[in-house]
Amino acid sequence: MTTKPEPVNGTAPVRRVRSGTSGGRQRLVQWTFVLPMVVFLLLFFCYPVLRNLTMSFQEWTVASFYEGGSPFVGLDNYVELVTDPIFGTAVLNTVLFTVGSLAPQFAIGLGLAVFFQRRFPLSGALRGLLLLPWLLPLVVSGAVFRWIYDEGFGALNQLLLGLHLISDPVPWLSSTRYALLSAIIANVWVGVPFNLVILHSGLQAVPGSLYEAAALDGAGPWQRFRHITLPLLRPVIAIVLMLGLIYTLKVFDVIMILTGGGPANASETLTTWSFALSFEEFDFGQGAAVGNILIVIALVFALFYLRSIRDTFRSRGGRG
Amino acid sequence: MALTLVTSGCAGGVSSRPPDVVVELDHYTSAEASRQFRSVLDRCAERFGLRIRRQNVPVDQLMPKVLRDATAHSLPDLLFVDNPDLKTVAETGALTELGQYGLSGEGYFPGIVEAGKYRGELYGLAPGVNGLALFYNRTVFERAGLEPPETWRELRATAEALTNGSTHGIAFSAIASEEGAWQFEPFLWSNGGELDELDSRKSVEALRFWSGLVEDGLASRSVVNWNQNDVIDRFTSGHATMMINGSWALSSLDESGTDYGIVPLPTPSTGTPPVVPLGGEIGAIPETTPERQRDAARVLGCLLERDNMLDWTTDHAYVPARTNVAEQYARERPVMEPFVEEVATGRARTAELGPRYREVSQALADAIQATIAGSTSPRQALRRAARVAETAD
């Protein structure tokens, strides 16, 4: 966008003089193009977000729904949340889940992307197959993982027992110790294709001549990766990590299907907790408050993301 | 995020309806139960020249839908909710008292009338109720020469004898929701524990027994993730020799071909009947217009008549909610006898706590999970639950 040449100062007023009366109509036409988007954003974005904000300052009981009375209680909902013992667990789990998902997703995705950079028979087909986890509805993957993790008959325990890696079946989903880990593993599997696709397309943009030149200069594979691939891939990496982070923060279905946040809140994250508060305990005020906390966190990272994009384009524009 | 769901669902679309239509809402989603319920409803509607427009949602979405409809003042004319939720709905002020339509709880099991009351007034009546009992695999029991257990001690001993490799002696649900609490409640109550004193010695003892079944390997650790349908699957596939479940399981069991027997739930000592919570859905009439309320009341009244009640409960494998109908029913269907027996002493889950029950049952389910899946002791877990129960509003 910013690479487009800026209009030279002075042309704008000239045009305005020339167009005269038709300028107003033109502006009107421009606005009619923008209007549907503005209406959409106001209705489906601004209204819910604002309503969520006001809801979090109100006390909601089941009676509020029919009679409409939901008194303003200030920060009470937030205070109650923060003092709730589940709050700490949910925050910690959200951090562990996000970092634990993101790091392996990225590492595996990058590894595979570099691997598929070479052309070999069936590489296209294999890459296509690797997209499968992304294409499957999460409900389906979740249900399959439930079977895989089953303590008695699950494929995972059978495999580990068969290889003599464990002596007793591991209660993947039914122990507070493993539940979060199990959810993370499933989510990594779901997220690898996203990383693979974006990083792989980023790699396509790296000119092959650079590798050839480096190889002539005697650079080994690690050095080529370290000094050519990584620096040139940096903007793409930033985007993948930022988007991945925001996606992972709001992951809901995988956890809900696998463990429902349990057992004993062991895999409760802010998203599942928000759902539980609103739709199981019908405390919509507190549910909305948790939602707002999530929005703020996502917003902070979104700002980082926007900034990194801007810097990327600026540095590219500068270079060009 | 929560809110988009709430606000977007308001257009329930009941405003433009012909006068002879009664809108009904329930959660009988299984094909079989759904069809049977429909046929009884239609029969009743026909008698008054009415038509039924039926809304049918999964059980966990029923209450969110009811609250959403309440916001938009577009509640159905006739509503069937899980009985512990009735007081919650009544609390919103959206329901009408049933006495004004000439409906009363006379001749019904006291537990179910209690569940239908809010602040002393009757807001809901059920055609049928259900409860929990112990199912056992008759083939395995006969081969092992065992008798179905009657006491807790016998239950443990039998389960121990039947646990072998990947086959567990017993299966139950300890999922982190009402379902998990409801399965534990008969053990809590039969031992003298109470929902409003969860940290009492009796309550702790009951939970220790419950979690001990898992700790000692007599039940799978996966019980914390199983709902009651998962429990049926384990039982029919032969991976559990006994299970705790309700009468709705009968049709799946008959389909699977498993040879099973049913006995009342074991109690701490012989001779005392188990105290089970009453299950099942309860019919209520939301505030709409006088004509529509009258029509809904006619349909509900018709459902509660002897013959319709018998038909409906036979199809659903529920126990008729009226005592004399239940007696006849037990004679005709001996397999249901343990359930009929239990319902007589069955308790309404919301009897002491009213709408607060919801929060307390969640705290109890969490305590069960913390004990079975975590490393919290029963006493610690229940003490925490009791604190939550105290502050519940």
TrEMBL record, chain A:
InterPro entries assigned: MetI-like, MetI-like_sf
Entry-linked Pfam families: BPD_transp_1
Segments passing through the bilayer: 28-50, 95-116, 128-149, 178-199, 232-249, 284-306
Keywords: Cell membrane, Membrane, Sugar transport, Transmembrane, Transmembrane helix, Transport
Main location: membrane
Localization in the cell: Cell membrane
Membrane topology: Multi-pass membrane protein
Domain ABC transmembrane type-1: residue ranges: 91-305
SUPFAM superfamilies: MetI-like
GO cellular component, one term: plasma membrane
GO biological process, one term: transmembrane transport
Family: Belongs to the binding-protein-dependent transport system permease family.
Protein's UniProt name: Multiple sugar transport system permease protein
Automatic annotation (TrEMBL), chain B:
GO molecular function per UniProt: maltose binding
Gene3D superfamilies: Periplasmic binding protein-like II
Pfam families the record matches: SBP_bac_8
Biological process according to GO: maltodextrin transmembrane transport; maltose transport
GO annotation, cellular component aspect: ATP-binding cassette (ABC) transporter complex, substrate-binding subunit-containing
UniProt keyword annotations, A-Z: Signal, Sugar transport, Transport
Lineage: superkingdom: Bacteria
The keyword Transcription is assigned to this record: no
Record has Transport as a keyword: yes
UniProt similarity note: Belongs to the bacterial solute-binding protein 1 family.
Name of this chain's protein: Multiple sugar transport system substrate-binding protein
Organism phylogeny: Bacteria, Bacillati, Actinomycetota, Actinomycetes, Actinopolysporales
